[in-house]
Structure formats: structure tokens, C-alpha cells
Write a structure and sequence with these properties.
Length: about 210
């Protein structure tokens, strides 16, 4: 090492510098910054992928129930064919404290429109990456009601037969609700979506809950 060479600089080590009575932090190594950036990018794309897949779940449910695509809804029994999107599910509720209430709602026009518009709106919001907070709130209400309709805590149904519940609490509708909340919390629409553009709209800037 040359006599004039600073011992700390020779090792590439940057020490904090003193400015007045404050200590300025040392600059982060470029490798650490790069790793942090890569981690942030990977996380953003993972959440974006989760958002799109969840959007497909809601949007597909709407399309299948509307047009009778032959999966959960048989061909010719879609909503446009006069079929009922809610009668089968709500009418089949066989456990839980809201069993009779769900039976009374089954097939009602208001219930069908709310259910179908909810599926469509949540699905489109997730696919576009906009209004995720509103979609999370609406989706949480919807999936919570469906959780109550399934009523996982029941070991037996109202007719005495086994419920075949696989878990008394963590049923998939509950997981959907948590996923929706998480997607809104991390602004998952900013990657592979229109979230950033949506957030800059004057109406959205004035009403952050629309994000």
C-alpha cells in the first residue's frame, strides 16, 4: 500500500461522514441496492400474478353463470336462458344460522343482480388493477356471506347427514377475502395493470378509498 493511500479507501469501505453534529450514513453498497430492487420487482410480479388469477376466478364465475358454459352451469341453464344464478346455491344451504334466510333469498331478482354485478365488478377491477380497495370491500362481504352459507363449523347438516367439512374455519371463501385485502394493501394493480394511471385521476386522488 502506498504511503499516501488512505487505509479505509483502499478496501473500498465507505465510512459515515460527520456533518456538523450529525452523522451522515454511509452509502449502501451497490450490490445491496441491486438485491433490494430485484426483490421488490419479484414481489410486485408475484402479487400482480395473484391479482390476475383471482380476477379470472371471479370473472369466470360470472361468465359461466351468465352464459351456461357447461362447467358449473350447464349449457342452456345460464342467466340469459332464464336460469337462476343464486337459486341452486342459496336454496341448497343446509347448515348454519342463516339457512332459512338464504332459502328466502334464493332466486330473488335483487339477490341475483347484486351477486352477478358483484362477480363482474370484482373480476374486472382485479383484471384491470383498478379500484382494488373497493373490490376488496365488496369481495370480502360477498365471500363472508358465502362462508356463512357453507358454514364450515358444522359437522352435520340440518338433515343429520355428515357435512364433510374439511376445516371448521379456513374455508376457501375466507382465503379469497384475505387475498383481496392483501392485493389492495400492496397496490397490486401498479404492476401489469392500470393502477398507477387510475391513482392519478382527479376523482381517485380526492377519494383514496377508490384506489
Amino acid at each position: 500500500m502506498a504511503v499516501h493511500e488512505h487505509p479505509h479507501r483502499s478496501a473500498g469501505l465507505r465510512l459515515p461522514s460527520f456533518r456538523g453534529n450529525q452523522i451522515a450514513p454511509a452509502s449502501a453498497p451497490e450490490s445491496a441496492v441491486s438485491v433490494h430492487s430485484e426483490t421488490h420487482t419479484v414481489r410486485a410480479y408475484v402479487f400482480a400474478s395473484l391479482r390476475l388469477l383471482t380476477g379470472v376466478v371471479f370473472l369466470w364465475a360470472f361468465l359461466d353463470k351468465t352464459f351456461g358454459l357447461g362447467y358449473a352451469t350447464q349449457s342452456g341453464k345460464g342467466w340469459i336462458d332464464g336460469g337462476s344464478p343464486t337459486k341452486g346455491f342459496l336454496g341448497g344451504v343446509a347448515a348454519g344460522p342463516m339457512e332459512s334466510t338464504f332459502h328466502s333469498w334464493a332466486g330473488d331478482a335483487w339477490a341475483e343482480w347484486l351477486f352477478m354485478l358483484g362477480l363482474l365488478g370484482i373480476g374486472l377491477a382485479l383484471m384491470a388493477g383498478v379500484a382494488l380497495r373497493f373490490a376488496a370491500a365488496a369481495g370480502t362481504v360477498m365471500t363472508a356471506l358465502m362462508w356463512v352459507a357453507e358454514w364450515p363449523p358444522a359437522q352435520t347438516l340440518s338433515d343429520g347427514s355428515p357435512s364433510m367439512s374439511t376445516n371448521p374455519f379456513a374455508e376457501y371463501h375466507l382465503i379469497y377475502a384475505v387475498v383481496l385485502i392483501a392485493l389492495a394493501a400492496v397496490s397490486a394493480g401498479d404492476t401489469l395493470g392500470l393502477g398507477k394511471i387510475w391513482a392519478r385521476l382527479p376523482l381517485v386522488r380526492r377519494s383514496p378509498w377508490l384506489r
